[in-house]
Amino acid sequence: MAENTAISWAKHTFNPWMGCTKVSPACDGCYAEALMDLRYGKVQWGPHGERVRTSVQNWNKVRRWQRQAAAAGEKWFIFCASLADIFDNQVPPEWRKDLFDLARECPNLIFLFLSKRPQNMVKMSEAAGGLPSNCALGTTCEDQKRWDINIPALSVAKYMLRPTFAFVSGEPLLGPMWVRRAPITPALRALFPAMKSDEFYDPLHPRQFEAIRIDWIITGGETDQGGHKARPWHPRWVRDIRDNCADAEVPFHHKQNGEWLPSSDVPEPWRFEGATVLPDGRVREWHPAYPGERLVHPEMRPMSRVGKKRSGRLIDGIEHNSFPKVTI
Length: 328
Known about the structure:
By secondary structure, the protein is α/β, with parallel strands linked by helices.
């Protein structure tokens, strides 16, 4: 699997620094905050906390991975960072430059920069001397609202910075996402005059706009973190993304089901805590004007809280482990 990560889509995890500020519902159950702030007290989370740079020894591990990957003749995916956001406003700019310089030293490593702040990618990368060619840019989209906000910004960043590839993490997946459509922003119209007559574009198959295509989508259910209890997901959310990726020939990777699993996949589901979820994300909530919907809605799905280990990674009996092609 990996030397120091259980994440199915990376070989290793590297944290050049620690600390962040919550910016979206996906942050509600922040793993990094629960571990490094609330449990170990190594860094204070939030806008008033200082970011903490990790040790020289930790940075040197990356150089060792480079030597190992080069000896093996392989390209290794390095998730950077699980305890921070590379494009966080409160990170000293010189730290980001140091990280980019390290990436340039390590051509056999593909650095995966997953950020909830894709709007910062272009300006911060340019200020750090430009994005290294062996860095991939990704953003988290947990629902349609975040997809519509973050995907146009990621598309602009892909066009302007030319990363190895662009990817999306739908983890934790908290609502449905129509991944074949995103709004065309003024920034995109400025780059692509042919878009001026359109309101939306398809980021998985943007016709002549291949330079802004999303190259990989990851999904995952939420897990419990500290006092935060994972929210259940609806099977249709993952299936729709999976099927749209297949149709557009975009690699799809399902990392985990999290704490919840469809009750139809659980032997003796009555032994576990349960919830019913509608496609729009409502959990045991129905409009007072339509009380019968609770009983007759065809897409209502019962879910069981079985725990992360028991829930596994299968969707309809299949494990999805696709990765994007790396050509550098």
